# Entry
Amino acid sequence: MIQTIGFGTIAVALALSVYGIFAAIIGVRLRRPEFVRSAEAAAYTNFGLLTVANLAMIYALVTHDFSVSYVAQVGSRSTPLFYTIISLWSALEGSILFWGWVLATYSALAIYLNRDRPGTLVPYSLAVILGVGAFFYLLLIGPANPFGRVWPVPLDGPGPNPLLQNHPLMAVHPPLLYLGYVGMTVPFAFAAGALLSGQLDDTWVRLTRRWTVTAWTFLTLAIVAGMWWSYEVLGWGGYWAWDPVENASFMPWLTATAFLHSAMVQERRGMLRVWNLSLIVATFALTILGTFLTRSGIVASVHAFAEGEIGYYFLGFIAVVLVFSLVILAGRSSELRTAGSLDGVASRETVFLFNNLVLTAFTFTVLLGTLYPLVAEAVRGVKVSVGAPFFNRMTIPLCVTLLFLMGVGPALPWRAASSEVLRRQLIPPVAAAVLVAIVSVALGLREPYTVLAFAFGAFALVANLREYGVGVRARMRAHGEGVLVALGRLIAANRRRYGGYIAHLGVISMAVGIAASSTFRQELDATLRPGEVVMAPGGRLGIRFDELWGKDEPQRFVVGANVQVLKGEKELGVLKPRLNFYRNNDQPITTPAVRSRPNLDIYINLMAFERDGSSVTLRILTEPLVFWIWLGGGIIGLGAVVALWPQRRRRTAQRVPGPTMAAAGTGEGGR
Amino acid sequence: MRRSVLRHGVGLLLTGMLLGTNPVVATTQEPSDSVAALEALTSKVAAQLRCPVCQGLSIQDSPTELALEMRAVIRDQLAEGRTPEEVKAYFVSKYGEWILLEPKPEGFNLAVYALPIAGLLVGAGALVLSVRRWTKQGGAGVAEGMVGDLPE
Amino acid sequence: MNWKRSVIAVAVIVPVIVLFWYGLSLDPRTIPSPLPGQPAPEFTLKLMDPPEGVGERGEVYTATAIGADAASAGTVSLAELRGKVVVLNFWASWCLACRDEHTALSEVATLYRDRGVVFYGVLYNDTPEPARRWIEEMGGQSYPTLLDPGSRTAIDYGLYGVPETFFIDPEGKVAYKHIGPVTRALLMQKLDEILAAGGEGT
# Structure
């Protein structure tokens, strides 16, 4: 029953998508608005169909209907309800089903919000976004079908991968990631629509700016949530391993960040059109590449779902996307070029250009490193690894440069700056940087990049805060407002700019946290008997093992240790690192215990134990300032929300009653 | 940004990358006794070798038993007086090049180091030239398609 | 619409697609070992005490029963086995896949005993207690197991996990390494190849 509902709705969605592609294009080319309308209806219907399919799957999971193939794969009667629901995205087929829903939702929303827009851009965009949807629906009725029939019906299932049941962040990271990844489809569709329709002015940029920032926000939060999950669950005390799939989520983030900045240059000076379109295409292509890497088995990774023929489907899709995008982009590029001009070298525009350079180089480096094992095997026939040491070596200089630029940008005005202005704006941040550098070195810090990270962090911090300070002071003087009122009104009057500065502060927080926690991380392995105390590295806190305990849970047997953190004689709190023995697995999964404070994290892993509880082996890590990484992520999110908050007054009239898409074809180049 | 700052900036970037210190693993305090020094060196070598049973983690980071045992092997070999290069060569002879977390910078592998740097240089050069061209044209009228000046 | 530029752009993409196509045909998880063809790393390991009693297959093993000369101090070293074909199987009681190959190994070990082939298990990241219990549970084992504390030998053999099986020829070179559980057919095939190549062992 469920299988029929699920399979049926998706099959219909596929058919409607294919229909919609043709209908939209025919409607636009033959000036038959009713065709375009029917294509829109197809998009709305798909939203309904995919919602039904996803709800059906959730129902099947919760009722443990093991006759459905996906439920037989990841379901289990002993998995708690919460994890059962989120196992919707714990394996390949379910995750694509969820992806399909997010895509259908975004497509319907994007089309609905722009349905009355004159011109031919939106119908072409509709065709493109339906095309992307068609691919995923095809996967869902083909190689990634979650609604297969299982006979004979098993009594129980293996449950989701144990690593995915250990932490509630598993509820948060994949949906956020999909909202970000899939969100990038909309700007891509509009960019493609612009190129196909020939409507090459800035319409598409304005249409998609909010979408891009929204998707970017989700992607940022998803990446930080993933880092946090990795830290809390995987037991190695780190949060970023440059795993191919981590890289796959990071690369579109980099190009999207570049776009956020260079789009502002396009808005102000009408230049960089080809570049911005390329960035959007690259961002979308990288999201598909990311999905391809995760699901094709082409690189071994923590995340790798499964292999099989699905890799070939994705390869075909990437080929189509790349060829299609490059043809229309390169083909139209000569029509797009405008004579660019800058008023001065020392200007915010120039900083943005360099920001784009560094971000692009960063993306290129990560891409090359991620794919190199494949290239090396093809060319040399040898398997090589490209891991953290490579990526750190090649990208830390770029990160530090970006930190620097994040200070220079806000400090410089648009258009041009006299040396007077330069001096006034740059001296305080530079002074802060020099001060921090001197203090760090004086305190014994010798790692050059860490010193630079702290110094440039201070530089950017002062530069961004000064923008606030100057603005608030100006308002106070001009309007006689108090500090808080002035601050509120300042932000409200220019949400994009000041939201952006908040986001910068978040990045600085993360950068400092990352620099500190990786440089000053210390580790100690200790075997303790009950009551024994060992000094944590750093020498200030004591760790005492109290007792070992075991707990039988339906899906696993848990062995844990009660470990007390001591400051001198004072007990600060109990940590409970655990080893989880899942019924169907060889090796136990560790759950580390973390005590997180703004200044220091104590991270304890239970490595081994004697069955009678007479001793345990613990790995104790101390890492300073980890807290600021997660806080920084939240601050970036906050800044993005501020930047996105709608302004009540619109500058240009966007809804013009009268000529709608019905007049498609007659109103070329309408704004 | 003045042109000289630009040039210095690029130069700094390059020097930094080429000298590229090892990934930040070490502590800031110089170890004062030989046990700590051995430990620090073991950590440094272990951070460059890949744990065979994990996904992409180094032997240093991996909490698995095999990784612990491999670290013991590293420690013993270093204590015997072997150099880090020799220890790494030992592991390569057992596990293949795959065990190194960074590709050996020789032969074809140089591409993965050289291409990003080359890309950055080429991009920087193109950008500098473009900025020069654009500032010469600057002020010569507003480019078309520009949205009206935003009140900021 | 500038077609020339489009074509150039597409031409750049084609090699990337071809690369991915090639990549799909590979398996990122099989790592080729540098050991085959090389002299097998030397080891001297203690014999694990066998479980109490005899397994349901009636198999008994002691060093003398299989003809190995290495009963000195209860250790076995590879050098003493020169001239025989040696099958080294790394296993552990917590390893699920090891159960699949257990019968095959014991049977083939018995079959080829008189042709100068010796089998040894090497225990990996495990302790003798659970290992003995496992052997009892599985109905006995027709060859002894060696203990490898600290996994020095495992690392010397470039072990990624268990089970892994090494075939060492009479000259002491690693002829073949198998990752994952072995089957009876595979064992016999490989042993026949090695015996044919080097002549029967003593």
Q: What stands out?
A: Chain C touches chain B at residues 31-35, 125, 150-152, 154-161 (CB under 8 Å). The CA atoms of residues 143 and 169 of chain C lie 18 Å apart. The longest strand of chain C covers residues 85-91.
